[in-house]
């Protein structure tokens, strides 16, 4: 109420095609008003990459390491994408890591022990995740138990279920070519370029169409200059990434991860053929990004998720079925955790009781929050998970190159998460302060 | 509940003995130029357990008019409004909408009739923009995809129809709006659905002077645009500024529903505090019999 008073002045808006200056101005206004989005994460990513490149230029900023980094980050990114849905509600899912592990265990047992065809085994693994999510969602939404407690119980319980499925101490190998290819094989060079081209053209077409139809309806739209700038910057970023990945990664340095991670499976270490191309896992992330972004921003379900996270009571009064929205979000989260579990199994060529354990979940929550998803609910995007996941992966990948002390890595990751949570809390305060 | 029922029955009966006088009074003094009210409540009662909250309350709301509903805390204003909105149903009495008997036991049924309520807390989502809030739960779609263009256009039309010029952009997040602007959005949302009766619960309670003025102007425009408006307010200045007629609740009884021109500020205050003012309001024997139970 103490804010500068509103005047009865009509602000012209229709057909307004302001230039880049106006767009930038609006953006700064939003950031100052507390809507920082993934800006801190992007800045952090740039700083970290620059830092590691300077400190460890010979190893960090190489094509091989870039591919490694993606490989390490993929599962965390997918897990974080799922967590975004739960975090948007203002809830938390601590069990997502072991939901990933349990689903991977179901996949491994049905595939290797029962000898099911891989699509069936994959389906069984993903369905396991969905069912876990359904159970969690019902407990949270219908019984009204805080999600922290429900998922903490599931965190412990699923760890046990996983052990029971796998058998104590055992490790189940995965020998299916298709499943192993996801994390271990790369696209042919031309496919990588084609993929980049499809993404850029697709993005350009969709956004241009939105601008056109808004203009023809006489509504305010962003300028074509801004659109061009966005399309070009995306094209450049993807171009650089694909170029790096398409380069020969055959190593001079005998790194410990090189053969295991990048080499084709079942070949002894050290006899690696030409390695080049975009990892297939990138396609998985891309498909999920497009699909889930569509779901969150273009459908009424997505709108309702934001509404429930922003003001549950308002959503209820607007006739939104709050509990079914919550249950669906938990199901999406755990299903994506199952996808992450498949990726982990594919990366490790096996499923063991540690799959999805250790810091996997904490890194994923960190990724979502670092990327700009609010822990208070109501704010966040799927793409945040990718930006945040890359930050986490860069730290996990870059620090060991500098120091051999794993303690430092934990401390730094923890610190970054704390910084991200502080940015979140401060921007929230800012929003409510600028509100009235 | 079982114990309460017979008691309530006696009470109702007792009040009923005297209320024909009230009824005839209401009818005589019915100041409305429009003879048929869009909403007509006849002798509604509501109890919560042993507490008899509403006693044979009559209320009329007319198209194109603002009906102010006044009364002290605990007089039953909220209960009456919640009954109209279908949040809970009345125990007895007639509920007529557009002259026809209506059964309203759920908010959806009230919405279907064209009744929208703007609650005091507004029920807006801070993290969504104005358009999203106005269409929340009733989004326009093309297939499965949200039809943002249609929604934005309709939102702008509605705001323009209410001569709202205080919003910079309908794509602003609600968190960046002032209290008055939020109230405006909540009211515009209520109007969006071809509603016929809009109920506003203390819309100016938390606003500053300038914003109160804006919201009151908006309330007046709603009525001038052909809607029936029920305005709950504690503020006599607001009531006398925008209302056409004033319904005054006193201890769960309708003390009087009168035309604004027929009463003074002081009389309304007297009706609120003691239930009567001169020959207006609840007669002393009703008070001694029914009210203090």
Mind explaining what this structure looks like?
- With 436 residues, chain A is mainly alpha-helical.
- Chain A has 2 domains: 293 residues, Orthogonal Bundle (ABC transporter involved in vitamin B12 uptake, BtuC); 93 residues, no CATH class.
- A two-stranded antiparallel ribbon of chain A has the order 1-2.
- Chain B folds into 2 domains: 208 residues, Rossmann fold (3-Layer(aba) Sandwich); 70 residues, no CATH class.
- The N terminus of chain B is likely disordered.
- In chain B, the strands form 4 sheets. Chain B has a 6-stranded mixed sheet, sandwiched between helices. Chain B has a 4-stranded antiparallel sheet with strand order 2-1-4-5, with helices on both faces. A two-stranded antiparallel ribbon of chain B has the order 7-8.
- In chain B, α1 runs antiparallel to α10 and α6 packs parallel to α7.
- The chains are: A mainly alpha (436), B alpha/beta (293).
- Chains A and B meet through α12, α13 and α17 of A and β8, α5, α6 and α7 of B.
Spans of chain A of 5+ residues with little confidence (pLDDT < 50)?
Answer: 1-17, 252-272
- Total number of domains of chain B: 2
Q: Largest inter-chain interface? A: A-B, 43 and 43 residues
Please write the string of helix (H) and strand (E) elements of chain A.
HHHHHHEHHHHHHHHEHHH
Number of helices of chain B: 10
pLDDT averaged over residues of chain A:
83
Name the overall outline of chain A: globular
CATH architecture of the largest domain in chain A: Orthogonal Bundle
Assign the CATH architecture of the largest domain in chain B.
3-Layer(aba) Sandwich
State the helicity of chain A in percent bands: over 70%
Shape of chain B: globular
The description of the largest β-sheet of chain A is: 2 strands, antiparallel
Tally of DSSP β-strands of chain B: 14
CATH class label of the largest domain in chain B: Alpha Beta
CA gyration radius of chain A, whole angstroms: 23 Å
Q: Find the CATH topology of the largest domain in chain A.
A: ABC transporter involved in vitamin B12 uptake, BtuC
CATH superfamily of the largest domain in chain B: P-loop containing nucleotide triphosphate hydrolases
């Amino acid at each position: 109420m103490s804010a500068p008073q509103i005047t009865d002045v009509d602000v012209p808006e229709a057909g307004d095609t302001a230039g880049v200056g106006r767009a930038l101005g609006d953006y700064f206004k939003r950031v100052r008003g507390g809507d920082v989005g993934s800006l801190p994460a992007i800045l952090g990513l740039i700083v970290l990459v620059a830092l590691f490149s300077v400190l460890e230029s010979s190893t960090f900023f190489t094509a091989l390491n870039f591919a490694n980094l993606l490989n390490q980050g993929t599962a965390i990114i997918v897990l974080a994408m799922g967590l975004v849905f739960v975090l948007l509600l203002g809830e938390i899912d601590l069990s997502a890591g072991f939901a990933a592990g349990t689903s991977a265990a179901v996949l491994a047992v049905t595939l290797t022990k029962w000898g099911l065809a891989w699509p069936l085994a994959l389906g069984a693994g993903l369905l396991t995740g969905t069912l876990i999510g359904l159970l969690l969602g019902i407990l949270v939404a219908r019984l009204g138990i805080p999600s922290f407690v429900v998922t903490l119980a599931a965190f412990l319980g699923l760890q046990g279920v996983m052990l029971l499925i796998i058998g104590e101490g055992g490790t189940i190998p995965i020998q299916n070519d298709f499943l192993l290819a996801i994390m271990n094989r790369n696209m042919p060079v031309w496919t990588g370029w084609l993929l980049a081209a499809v993404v850029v053209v697709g993005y350009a077409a969709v956004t241009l169409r939105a601008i056109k139809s808004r203009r023809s309806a006489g509504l305010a739209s962003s300028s074509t200059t801004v659109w061009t700038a966005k399309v070009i910057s995306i094209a450049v970023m993807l171009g650089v990434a694909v170029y790096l990945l398409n380069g020969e990664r055959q190593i001079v340095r005998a790194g410990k991860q090189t053969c295991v991670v990048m080499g084709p499976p079942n070949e002894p270490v050290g006899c690696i053929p030409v390695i080049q191309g975009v990892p297939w896992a990138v396609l998985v992330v891309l498909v999920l990004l497009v699909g889930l972004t569509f779901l969150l921003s273009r459908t009424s379900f997505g709108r309702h998720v934001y509404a429930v996270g922003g003001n549950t009571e308002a959503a209820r009064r607007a006739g939104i079925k709050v509990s079914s929205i919550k249950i669906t979000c938990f199901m999406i989260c755990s299903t994506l955790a199952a996808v992450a579990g498949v990726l982990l199994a594919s990366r490790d060529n096996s499923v063991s009781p540690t799959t999805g354990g250790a810091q996997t979940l904490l890194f994923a929550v960190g990724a979502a929050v670092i990327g700009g998803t609010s822990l208070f609910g109501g704010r966040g995007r799927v793409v945040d998970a990718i930006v945040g996941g890359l930050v986490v992966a860069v730290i996990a990948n870059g620090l060991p190159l500098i120091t051999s002390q794993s303690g430092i890595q934990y401390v730094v990751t923890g610190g970054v998460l704390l910084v991200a949570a502080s940015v979140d809390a401060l921007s929230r305060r800012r929003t409510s302060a600028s509100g009235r | 509940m079982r114990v309460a029922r017979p008691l309530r029955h006696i009470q109702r009966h007792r009040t009923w003995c005297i209320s024909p006088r009230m009824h005839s009074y209401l009818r005589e003094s019915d100041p409305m130029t429009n003879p048929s009210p869009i909403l007509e409540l006849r002798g509604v009662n509501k109890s919560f357990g042993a507490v008899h909250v509403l006693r044979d309350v009559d209320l009329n709301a007319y198209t194109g008019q603002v009906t102010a509903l006044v009364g002290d805390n605990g007089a039953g204003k909220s209960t009456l409004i919640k009954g109209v909105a279908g949040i809970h149903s009345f125990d007895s009495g007639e509920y007529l909408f557009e002259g026809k008997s209506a059964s309203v036991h759920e908010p959806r049924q009230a919405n279907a009739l064209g009744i929208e309520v703007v609650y005091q807390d507004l029920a807006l989502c801070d993290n969504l923009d104005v358009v999203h809030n106005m269409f929340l739960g009733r989004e326009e779609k093309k297939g499965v995809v949200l039809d943002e263009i249609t929604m934005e256009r309709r939102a702008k039309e509605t705001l323009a129809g209410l001569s709202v010029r205080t919003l910079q952009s309908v794509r602003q997040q609600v968190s960046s709006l002032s209290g008055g602007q939020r109230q405006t959005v909540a009211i515009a949302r209520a109007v969006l659905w071809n509603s016929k009766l809009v109920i506003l619960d203390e819309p100016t309670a938390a606003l500053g002077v300038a914003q109160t003025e804006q919201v009151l102007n908006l309330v007046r425009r709603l009525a001038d645009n052909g809607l029936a408006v029920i305005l709950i307010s504690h503020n006599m200045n607001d009531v006398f500024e925008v209302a056409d007629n004033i319904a005054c609740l006193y201890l769960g009884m309708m003390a009087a529903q009168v035309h604004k021109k027929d009463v003074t500020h002081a009389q309304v205050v007297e009706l609120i505090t003691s239930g009567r003012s001169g020959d207006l309001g609840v007669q002393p024997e009703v008070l001694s019999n029914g009210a203090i139970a």
